[in-house]
Amino acid sequence: MDAIDLIPNKVASSGLVTLDLETYFHDGERVAFDIKPWLFREMILKEKDFREEVKNHAWENYQGKNLAFFCSSEALIPNWAWMLLAASVQPYANRYVLGNLELLEHTLYLDALNAIRPEDYKDQRVILKGCSHKPVPVSAYVELSSRLLPVVKSLMYGEACSNVPVYKKKS
């Protein structure tokens, strides 16, 4: 038996379950899609012209990408216009939203977190890993907390060696 075998791994034997939200990051490109250039004088949506822009746009260029549709002018955009964009990009994009890139990221994480079954963590001591190399929105931590809090024994944030207690189930 060598010396390494004599050193107990306290983290491994602690019974902690670590969830790394970075593993739920969608690798597809994010695109902010501003419709302002498609408006008359960048302020008025003319239906015929708008439909022509949508029809002639190369939607296939968004294959597998994630889009955030928005309008950077203060124009009033009818609901059907956003729906028309959705219908046009649907066959190509991985995901699309009406809003900014922050909302898109939140939505991508919501989609991914739907794969987590909270009941799998019943009475577990769970750590939501804090450090990551990919962007994880705070909203993803809040969302996962809301799903896990009703079932876990405890919830922590950070790393096993240096975590911040968030919740402990009352006995």
Listing every helix as H and every strand as E from the N terminus to the C terminus, the arrangement reads HEEHEHEHEHEE
The secondary-structure class comes to alpha/beta
Estimated helix fraction = 25-40%
Number of self-contained structural domains: 2
By DSSP (H or I, 4+ residues per run), the number of helices equals 5
Main beta sheet strand tally, sense and closure = 4 strands, mixed
- On the 0-100 scale, what is the average pLDDT? 92
Whole-angstrom Rg: 22 Å
| Strand portion | 15-25%
Count of DSSP strands: 7
Q: Overview of this structure, please?
A:
Helix 2 runs parallel beside helix 3 (79-89) and helix 4 runs parallel beside helix 5 (138-148). The protein has two domains: 3-26 and 108-168, no CATH class; 30-93, no CATH class. Mean pLDDT is 92; it is low at 7-13. With 171 residues, it is α/β, with parallel strands linked by helices. The protein has five helices and seven strands; from the N terminus they run αββαβαβαβαββ. The longest helix has 13 residues, at 101-113. The protein has a four-stranded mixed β-sheet, with helices on one face. Strands 2-3-4 form a three-stranded parallel β-sheet, with helices on both faces.
